[in-house]
Design goal:
The structure is a homodimer. By secondary structure, chain A is α+β, with helices and mostly antiparallel strands. Chain A folds into 2 domains: 131 residues, Jelly Rolls, CATH 2.60.120; 80 residues, Arc Repressor Mutant, subunit A, CATH 1.10.10. In chain A, a hairpin with a 2-residue loop joins strand 11 and strand 12. The interface between A and B is large, with 57 and 57 residues. The structure holds a DNA duplex.
DNA sequence: CGGAAGATTGACGAATTTCAAGCAAAGTGG
DNA sequence: CCACTTTGCTTGAAATTCGTCAATCTTCCG
């Protein structure tokens, strides 16, 4: 699976090769590279934990989620290559949601102290980080709009379109389709729908020839048409020139 | 209405008294103080605009919202004293949602250029800003969980409890209740519910003696009980010591 | 081959939306 | 000060989306 170069990490200048307590996490770590590999199902960050690590996703995918007392799970967002993980814990002191690897993932690891040193010594990089945060905040805002105002078909169309664009932007897939290694249950939990209703809506989208998602691959006949169904708000966030 | 001191602005050292084009916005501005007053219904930031201003809310309340092509509106979050507005535009170049004043508001104004100068010269303040961003991101994540997994009663209980806590934290109201000058329609749009269903659910909460919201004031008999109904995740974000 | 995880389907019920009025409070102009 | 208007709140009934239950099927893997 293609990925993102480690040179894309906002903190790359401050990379520190943090050894983990052996067995502390089910990670295999390559100390030479400062990278880390996580197997599918591994919890990278756990809600309530005071994780001292920050990650940049180099390759692989996962989910951020939160579990309620009543057992229901909400997937807050899908984690794709290029995403930055742990800023919340880094800055608030504690994760308020969990992050789990869906596929095998490669990650670039930093320590929390690096974050503060970054702000002191590399304002441009700190600004980049804030930019990443704003992008993420924007995505969460759009997700709120989706959960609040769109019906099942629109939600799925919206999600498919956004995932397609995000994945294409990091070089994955081709103009016809992208890898999407999640379960229907993950999508249902992300969109606030039941598994059954998600399944039936998926079926309808496929029957209509608009989107086929099977065996971990999402194929879109006409992304623009799907965007229209999902009432997608077109906007390409661009890096704002400093000043 | 009580408020927040301007000295709480993360950018206070960089305050610049930006004169607006007269009549450009329906604002009354006090040039001497670098503050700005917005009347109810005034749009502070508009979706799609390239607003050169950033604000800290000193007093008053408003809503962030986004309107869909189909006319439906989603309130992304309620804007309370102490909130920072416009970071998205400041860093992404364009607002992706609008912000409207509900009550009369007092704001502290900055220019976008100040943001970059802040990162260069005041790393601690830049860090504060990132901290604010992380808090906001956390709130949006919780909102997603609410819209995705909670039913109408739980959503309203959750919203009431969170608003109560946030308002109390900035010194508004008293242990029995807080000012909440929004319309039922605003709450409905924030929680992804219809006005009718919101109204009936509010009625039930009031009849059960759990929360009474009328004439702009929200009274909670027992905040903890309401939190339980709303399955609220207890957590008090604290300022993380640097390093 | 057997087991487990995930996908699929139909039937039924519950939560929520929409539609359609009517009511109350607060402003506005004469 | 009073019609008149506007905005927001309230209520009932009908329509619908969506969730739950229960079962079956498929795929994958050891």
């Amino acid at each position: 699976m293609a990925g993102v170069s480690c040179s894309a990490c906002p903190l790359r200048r401050f990379r520190i090769f943090t050894p983990f307590t052996p067995g502390e996490l089910a990670f295999q770590q390559d100390f030479k590279s400062g990278e880390l590999t996580a197997d599918p199902r591994t919890t990278l960050l756990m809600e309530g934990s005071n994780a001292p690590q920050l990650f940049t996703v180099l390759s692989g995918m996962g989910v951020r989620y939160k579990t309620l007392e009543n057992g229901r799970r909400q997937v807050i967002s899908f984690v794709l290559p290029g995403d930055f993980l742990g800023l919340q814990a880094g800055v608030m002191g504690e994760m308020r949601h969990s992050v789990e690897a869906t596929t095998r993932m490669r990650l670039c690891v930093f320590r929390r102290e690096d974050l503060w040193r970054l702000f002191q010594a590399q304002p441009a990089r700190a600004y980049d980080l804030t930019w990443l945060g704003a992008i993420e905040e924007h995505l969460l805002g759009e997700t709120i709009v989706t959960l609040g105002q769109r019906d099942a078909t629109q939600r799925i169309a919206w999600a498919f379109y956004k995932l397609f664009r995000r994945l294409r932007a990091v070089g994955l897939g081709d103009p016809r389709g992208v890898p999407l290694p999640f379960r229907q249950q993950d999508l249902a939990d992300a969109l606030g729908l039941s598994l059954v209703h998600t399944n039936k809506t998926l079926k309808r989208l496929a029957a209509a020839g608009q989107a086929v998602w099977s065996r971990g691959r999402l194929e879109l006949a006409d992304p623009a048409a799907l965007a229209a169904i999902g009432l997608v708000d077109h906007h390409r966030p661009e890096r704002r020139p400093l000043v």
